[in-house]
Amino acid sequence: MEQFRFIWKYIMRHKWQYIGGIITLFILDFANLYIPKTTGVITDGLAAHTMDMQGVLKNVGIILAIGFMLAVGRFLWRYFIFGASRGIEHEIRDGMFAHLETLDVEYYNEHKTGDLMTRFTSDLNAVRMAIGPAVIAAFDAIVMTVMVIGQMMVYVNIKLTLVAVIPMIFIAAGELYYGKIMQKRYLERQEAVSELTDYVQESFSGVRVVKAFVRERAQMKEFAKANAKAKRKNLNIVKMEAVVMPLLDVVIGISSLLTLIYGGYLALSGEITVGRFVAFNQYITMLVWPMIACGEAINMFSQGGASIKRIKEVFEEEPEIADSEEVKEVDGLKGEICLNHLTFIHRGHSEPTLKDISLQIEAGTTLAVIGRTGNGKSTLVNLILHLYNTKPGMILLDGRDINTIPLKTLRENIAYVPQDNFLFSDTLKSNIAFGTDNAEMEEIIKATKTACIHDNIIAFPDGYETIVGERGVTLSGGQKQRSSIARALKKDAPILILDDALSAVDTDTEEKILQNLKENRKGKTTILIAHRISTIQNADVILVLEDGEAKECGNHKELMELGGIYKEMFEKQQLEAQIGEKRAAFQAEDFGGERKEDMQ
Ligand SMILES: Nc1ncnc2c1ncn2[C@@H]1O[C@H](COP(=O)(O)OP(=O)(O)OP(=O)(O)O)[C@@H](O)[C@H]1O
Ligand SMILES: [Mg+2]
């Protein structure tokens, strides 16, 4: 019932199309009735020798005219009702995508892509079937049945009609029960299909890992399992259909049989004419289609109902992060950031990821965040992006609580290079211009030069038009990172966040990018997250996170003087670098020695 309410508002938007379609259907069914009637008239006329050839031709003409009307009418109702159902499908799809775009990252953490994709494809298709073909089938079946039965009663004989119709009442009752069972089975089937899509999607995305670990066989086995489950669920449906469809035939057969016996008797006794007896038999065959159509309509309604339920679930999901009533528009941010006893617990965790972090930086500062892996660095910047909710007063930007800044304004004022630096399957140019609607080539090149990726890009045969991602060239890790940095720089926002964005870049290039950033970001706030001290030692403020706590804070010199975690990290990394250099030098010498020996 709830499903019905959900779809009803869409149907109402297309009510004229539905009304047009249904009226056409009604007229058609009515016209359809005249064919048996006219055949009856011809038969009776011929039998009683009251009709000449001209009379026959005239009646055949009527049948032809009705046939023509039927053809035009069938086009019309298809046009109206299929048009409406395609329209609704389009609206739901648009609406669902738009709604999903408003949902938080948390929703995507909890829902699988394959499942969402199934809702867009096979579920939506089932809904379309239920509001298009099924509506036609149901109306047609009902209208036809009522009219044909009415005609049988008026034109032929009431008693005969009752005898023929009684077996069909059982069908109607049976079909309702059947619909209920089918809906449950369809729901199970859709879930199985979702799981299957999920599995396929993950295995294709992770194909490199699968190959590297030689897990193809295991993947195939797992897939076969999911596939078998989908088959089982499909068979559950087929079994039910296999039982019901022949039953329909049996009932219709019984009806025909009863008609022949009782109708024959009535014709013999002269209660009805032979012509009417012939017409009656034609009417009975006309009832076969509505019976089947009714079964199919119930089938499609059940499928559609199950699928609407799944689509409705998506629509019912409310974004947890949305502009509250206290939101007030701002004309852009300057870039001052204040963290005030910031504590944050991730959903499903018992311990806070970030504990009581306080920090104040002026606009134009370069803030570096360093700490061991899993210490909450990414979480911290995600909070500044308002990807998760924080308590009022914990994060202030330009002195304003982050919860009072419209999400759109906030995010427009922050350029972000995520740790996984995702690129879309599109040209490099579009990827870099992603955050803006009108992209000037000059600005793009300025950004790529700053990110030290311009030279790489022009070396590709297609330059900036090179397609990256699944169907295009595969970029190296460092190229991807730098493209992603260029995308953020192109946005030229007051706050720039680089989450471990230089990890796959060699130290020389890193130094160059940092130097470029220094010039490019003068007067603007930049947040750098890194594991290497070399990346961040020139930052104005360095925040050292340890177990989610801000253990140390200050510039390089201050932290070295403090002699704590930072100094320890620095010395360790220095030592590692020295060892690395020594090893390289040693290997070179060794290699040279061998050469010398060879030459002797
Ligand atoms: N969406 C999430 N839901 C639940 N827990 C999360 C989520 N994201 C991160 N965590 C947890 O929060 C902790 C900190 O993760 P975070 O990604 O902030 O670390 P990090 O310092 O950026 O690590 P790295 O240096 O490896 O990038 C981890 O224990 C992680 O499991
Ligand atoms: Mg991280």
Give an account of the 3D structure:
- By secondary structure, the protein is of the alpha/beta class.
- It has two domains: 315 residues, ABC transporter type 1, transmembrane domain (ABC transporter transmembrane region fold), CATH 1.20.1560.10; 237 residues, Rossmann fold (3-Layer(aba) Sandwich).
- Helix content is 67%, strand content 9%.
- The protein contains 20 helices and ten strands.
- A six-stranded mixed β-sheet has the order 6-7-8-3-9-10, sandwiched between helices.
- Helix 5 packs antiparallel against helix 10 and helix 6 packs antiparallel against helix 10.
- The termini are far apart.
- The structure holds adenosine-5'-triphosphate (ATP) and magnesium ion.
- The site of magnesium ion has 5 residues, from helix 11.
- The site of adenosine-5'-triphosphate has 16 residues, from helix 11.
Give the helices and strands, then pairings.
Elements: H1 2-13, H2 15-47, H3 53-102, H4 105-110, H5 113-131, H6 133-156, H7 158-205, H8 207-212, H9 216-268, H10 274-316, E1 337-344, E2 354-361, E3 366-371, H11 377-384, E4 395-397, E5 400-401, H12 407-412, E6 414-417, H13 428-432, H14 441-450, H15 454-459, H16 477-491, E7 495-499, H17 507-520, E8 525-530, H18 533-536, E9 541-546, E10 549-554, H19 556-562, H20 565-599
Parallel strand pairs: 3-8, 3-9, 6-7, 7-8
Antiparallel strand pairs: 1-2, 1-4, 4-5, 9-10
Helix pairs in contact: 1-10, 2-3, 2-6, 2-10, 3-5, 5-6, 5-7, 5-10, 6-7, 6-10, 7-9, 7-10, 9-10, 14-16
The protein binds adenosine-5'-triphosphate (ATP) and magnesium ion.
Magnesium ion binds at residues 377-378, 419, 499-500.
